[in-house]
Design a protein that fits this description.
71% helix; 0% strand
């Protein structure tokens, strides 16, 4: 846990020296640290600051991770929304991620499994 706290400290210092779009990437990295610490509410909070869900730069992987933090923070409707966005962005050749997203949607009762 100490290394996670050190990482958070470094990211906080980086935030003080950063502006604009670069801050989003740091917020996202902070969210991933909180995910590793299993503090999903804080992870969700920082994903929300770090991810612009409608941006073309936002990846389906980021949306999937954001949805997981939302789900584990009891934000079911938001998790479903982010999963649907991720499902629309995932390229057909990434069958593994497509299955992960669709499986999660099916578990939430939103989609029948297609495989």
């Amino acid at each position: 846990m100490k290394s996670y706290d050190e990482a958070l400290s470094c990211f906080e210092k980086a935030l003080e020296r950063t502006s604009g779009e670069d801050k989003r990437e740091i917020y996202k990295q902070i969210a991933y640290v909180y995910t590793q610490k299993q503090d999903y509410k804080k992870a969700y909070k920082f994903f929300k600051k770090g991810i612009s869900v409608f941006s073309a730069k936002t990846t389906y992987q980021d949306l999937f991770d954001f949805s997981s933090a939302a789900l584990l923070s009891d934000r079911i409707d938001e998790a479903i929304f982010y999963l649907k966005l991720a499902n629309n962005k995932v390229p057909p050749e990434d069958k593994k991620y497509k299955e992960r997203i669709e499986s999660q949607l099916a578990r939430l009762g939103v989609l029948e499994k297609s495989w």
